[in-house]
Design a protein that fits this description.
Length: 280
């Protein structure tokens, strides 16, 4: 049987470490504050925002909630971000995505002070990751790295294949694995013979956004399989990009859905907030 990588337990451990750190900072008079902006009331976004507020409360991070109406203009949103950038007591700014169609997401991300960009989406932070400088790293790939490290999985020298090249998962994941001295291949919808490429992987990260697409035909015997996907199947049950029942028997370690990568994203957001609180 493979090692089941327990994202629930690892994320809880990280949150407890952060809680302790925030407690120590508080004794020194340092408070940490995250501003969370939501535009419109998309139900999924409301759930994510609610979970982020809950995690902040658990760790001892103050959270400021800005719930703006759907018809908020880009100028109004940029003005609010400008005000929060200027506020010393606000350490992190998070704008919940997706935004309504009339707002340019790129312009909003670029408006956030890179030192408060706890999502790690600002081009300055992405560039820093690319050239190996300190900066905020996108939370989902940062969480995957923690899952691997805390499960004792060696990355250096390993063949790593990332399926998906999005700006928030695939690309930063590839850069992080490269930083850890993996030999990295990034694949996408135009990749030829994806099964053969994926089968080279010692560590396979599936961030493809297609329910249960990754069957054992894509997986080398003994590989570590990380499933980033989150979908609801026909019975309203959660599933990933990986066909877990098919793949688990042949791999050495695997993340389940739910309880694998999912809980790590918020834990790493909290990590980034605490880091933001330490920036002078
Ligand atoms: P995107 O839709 O932005 O990117 C999907 C990527 O997969 C693209 O690069 C696309 O290629 C590639 N792709 C799509 N179809 C194929 C195919 N048939 N063969 C090969 N490559 C393909 O998704 P995200 O990166 O945002 O998210 C990926 C998954 O992870 C989703 O299920 C999402 O819900 C989940 N997710 C989970 C998070 C968590 O906290 N656990 C956080 C973020 C996302 P191309 O570029 O050529 O179009």
């Amino acid at each position: 049987m493979p090692q089941i990588i327990d994202g629930k337990a690892i994320s809880a451990q990280i949150k407890d470490e952060l809680k302790e750190k925030v407690g120590t900072l508080k004794e020194k008079g340092v408070r940490i504050c995250l501003a969370v902006i939501q535009v419109g009331n998309d139900p999924a976004s409301s759930v994510y925002v609610g979970n982020k507020k809950k995690a902040c409360a658990y760790i001892g991070i103050e959270s400021l909630a800005y719930e703006l109406p759907e018809e908020t203009t880009q100028e109004e949103l940029l003005r609010l971000i400008g005000e929060l950038n200027a506020k010393k007591e606000v350490n992190g700014i998070l704008v919940q995505l997706p935004l309504p169609d009339h707002i340019d997401e790129g312009a909003v991300i670029r408006a956030i002070d890179p030192k408060k960009d706890v999502d790690g989406f600002h081009p300055q932070n992405v560039g820093a990751l690319c050239i190996g400088q300190p900066g905020f790293v996108s939370c989902t790939p940062a969480g995957i790295l923690q899952l691997l490290k805390r499960s004792g999985i060696e990355i250096a020298g390993k063949e790593c294949v990332v399926i998906g090249r999005s700006n928030i998962v695939g690309k930063p994941m590839a850069l992080l694995l490269l930083r850890e001295n993996g030999t990295v291949t990034v694949t996408h919808s135009k990749t030829k013979d994806l099964k053969a490429v994926a089968k080279r992987a010692d560590i396979l990260v599936a961030a493809v956004g297609r329910p249960k697409m990754i069957t054992r035909d894509y997986v080398k015997e003994g590989a570590v399989v990380i499933d980033v996907g989150i979908h609801r199947n026909e019975n309203n049950k959660l599933c990933g990009d990986v066909d877990y029942d098919d793949v688990a028997p042949i791999c050495s370690a695997i993340t389940p859905v739910p309880g694998g990568v999912g809980p790590m994203t918020i834990a790493m957001l909290m990590y980034n907030c605490v880091e933001a609180g330490n920036i002078k």
